[in-house]
Specification:
Blueprint (H helix, E strand, L loop, with lengths): L3 E4 L5 H8 L9 H4 L9 E8 L2 E11 L4 E9 L8 H16 L3 E7 L3 H9 L3 E11 L16 E2 L2 H10 L8 E3 L2 E3 L3 H8 L3 E6 L5 E12 L2 E10 L2 H17 L4 E6 L21 E8 L1
Parallel strand pairs: 4-5, 12-13
Antiparallel strand pairs: 1-2, 2-3, 3-4, 5-14, 6-13, 6-14, 7-10, 8-9, 10-11, 11-12
Helix pairs in contact: 5-6
Length: 290
């Protein structure tokens, strides 16, 4: 493997589009996200070229509030995989992250992507968290009717932070929302609610029994909705999940993704049949201390 590794610039956008054209059946988000990586000091996209052909890309995204960097948008041309390009891009990110003064580098991937997992492990990343993940497309499965006695309430960042600090509805230090893992500090919570809506269901004792994050967005004219659902009460979870499916049908969503907290990940199997390709699928978080 050889080639030139350099910082990418906005004029590389056509090369990025060409590289990603076959990813996820042409539904890769990277060509849409690429222009947003410019204009600040929080994103550092790199690419490896062989002549004029872009063979691999990746973006170092910085979270200055906790001195953390993220490996984002890692892609390798299909014909060039298993040649060390991904490792080369991430090695460069590690060096850049250290130079910037970051303390931790994070890397999220799917349990289906064995090659990606091996790259992370070979470069010294450690698996620190995982969550059940699956996608649904219409027609959405039959489901119970939501209960008229359960009332999800929309909450703001301060109240959400208080719930995360005092309630064990989300165990551990990390939780997944829309293909990202987050910490529970107030800065992270405020950033989450800039693009997600959070709803909570309180039990008779005043403790949160369900916490749901969701957002919808358009990509190439296709409406996509993402839910992250956490609960300590199975009956409440069934109601919240049923409401989510109702929402997808009412809003004519064309693709939906679900991330499920540790207590609820088994309960969903009693409500619907998960598509075969997502049976056992996990979304993984790796970390490397710098």
């Amino acid at each position: 493997m050889s080639g030139e590794l350099r910082d990418l610039v906005l004029s590389d956008h056509p090369a990025v589009k060409e590289l990603c054209i076959g990813v996820w059946g042409g539904k890769d988000y990277i060509p849409h996200r690429f222009p947003k990586w410019f204009g600040d000091d929080l994103n550092h996209p790199f690419g490896v070229f062989q002549g004029d052909a872009l063979q691999a890309i990746g973006n170092l995204e910085i979270k200055p509030s906790n001195k953390t960097g993220w490996v984002k948008g890692l892609r390798v041309r299909e014909t060039q995989r298993r040649k060390g390009y991904a490792s080369r891009v991430i090695d460069h990110m590690i060096l850049r992250a250290k130079k910037i003064g970051l303390e931790t580098l994070r890397y999220a991937t799917s349990s289906k992507n064995v090659a990606s997992m091996k790259v992370a492990e070979n470069l010294g990343f450690t698996l620190v968290s995982d969550v059940r993940y699956f996608r649904l497309e219409p027609p959405f499965p039959p489901h119970p009717q939501p209960s008229p006695t359960i009332h999800p309430l929309r909450i703001d960042a301060e109240r959400l932070h208080g719930i995360l600090e005092t309630n064990d509805i989300i165990p551990g230090d990390n939780f997944a929302i829309r293909w990202e893992f987050h910490k529970k500090d107030i800065v992270s919570v405020k950033a989450i609610l800039e693009r997600e809506e959070a709803q909570v269901v309180f039990g008779d004792t005043g403790n949160a029994e369900s916490l749901t994050f969701f957002s919808s967005f358009d990509r190439d004219g296709q409406k996509i909705t993402v839910f992250s659902i956490f609960s300590t009460n199975r009956s409440v979870f069934v109601d919240i999940f049923s409401r989510a499916l109702d929402y997808l049908e009412t809003e004519k969503t064309e693709r939906a993704a679900f991330f499920l907290g540790p207590r609820v990940e088994q309960w969903v199997d009693y409500i619907i049949d998960i598509p075969k390709e997502f049976v056992g699928r996990r979304f993984l978080l790796y970390e490397k201390e710098l």
